[in-house]
Amino acid sequence: MTLGAEAQPHLVVPHGITAWDWIHVAVILAVTVVATQAARRGVMRAAAKGDRDRAWGRLVSRFLTYVIVVAGLVYALVALRVQIGPLLGALGIGGIALAFALQDTLQNFVAGVLLQARRPIRRGDQVLLDNKFEGVVEDIDLRNVAVRTYDGLDVFIPNKTVLENPIVNYTRTPLRRARLDVGVGYGIDLGDAQRVLVEATRRTTGVKQLPAPAAWVDEFGDSSVRFTVLFWHSSDPWRARSDVAMNVKCALDEASIAMPFPQREVWVRAPRADSREDALIGDGWDARRRPNDRSA
Asked: How far is 244 from 235, CA to CA, in rounded Å?
């Protein structure tokens, strides 16, 4: 045991560290810093020529930064004549425990690489993520996807969550269909109402003529016959639906087609005589007599 304790320093640093060794290490670290900056600028400059959001360039530059820093540190340890073998052996056991502790981080890292490789979303895209976060993609890094919602909130969604759930990219499909439910009265000619709805939708700014707008009877409701108006647009979905709704309302008013509000009719019946007395009177019995009274 004593021999092992005395031999351990010899295995790590076999000779004493001189001033020149420290200068050598300082030069190596300085070169490492310069190399990381140069690699980052070079990758970003190359990515800017062919990729508008430069997300892939940011991913590659970060990965190169990690590689260069690790290589610089290893070279600095070698310059100090540190034995890398025993050090790696000691780090191996701790690395296994660290890998289990950082399991979620590693999963997000791999998911981030897959997101950058497959490119389902890019910076600036309007998206719906995890079926509840709708907004504009601000950034994609190795751990999170940053989304600025339409409510003005900054949401950071783990890459693993983004990759495992449906991704709706509105920017990739600028031409999409919207629907608007409209109810008309039961006394209205449905053919006339259909023509008015289609024509009003067709005249709305932002509605595409091909595919053509359509209006179909959807169901017979409690108070109205409900139409579903379908149309294609390339603008903001909220604005498109609002413009179509306002034009439809004006067109229905001009055509004197009522849009009834929900209502119920209540029928009140007058009080009736007892059903037993009605039956006796109908059979010729005097209602004032008792049923067991048989005297004439």
From this structure: 12
Contacts (Cβ under 8 Å, ≥6 apart) of 165: 129, 130, 131
Starting at the edge strand found earlier in the chain, the sheet holding 214-220 runs: 176-184, 225-233, 214-220
**Cα(100)–Cα(106) distance, integer angstroms:** 9
So what's the pLDDT on residue 91?
61
Handedness of CA 82, 83, 86, 92 (dihedral sign): positive
Amino acid at 83: Q
DSSP character at residue 207: B
Q: If you average pLDDT over residues 212-217, what whole number do you get?
A: 94
Which helix (H) or strand (E) segment holds residue 25: the answer is helix 19-50
Integer angstrom CA distances of residue 282 from 15, 219, 269, 275, 286 = 127, 46, 22, 11, 9
Average pLDDT, rounded, for the chain = 78
pTM over 0.90: no
Q: Where are the alpha helices (DSSP H) in 80-174?
A: 84-101, 103-118, 159-164
10 against 240, higher pLDDT: 240
Among candidate residues 204, 213, 217, the one with its CA nearest the CA of residue 244: 204
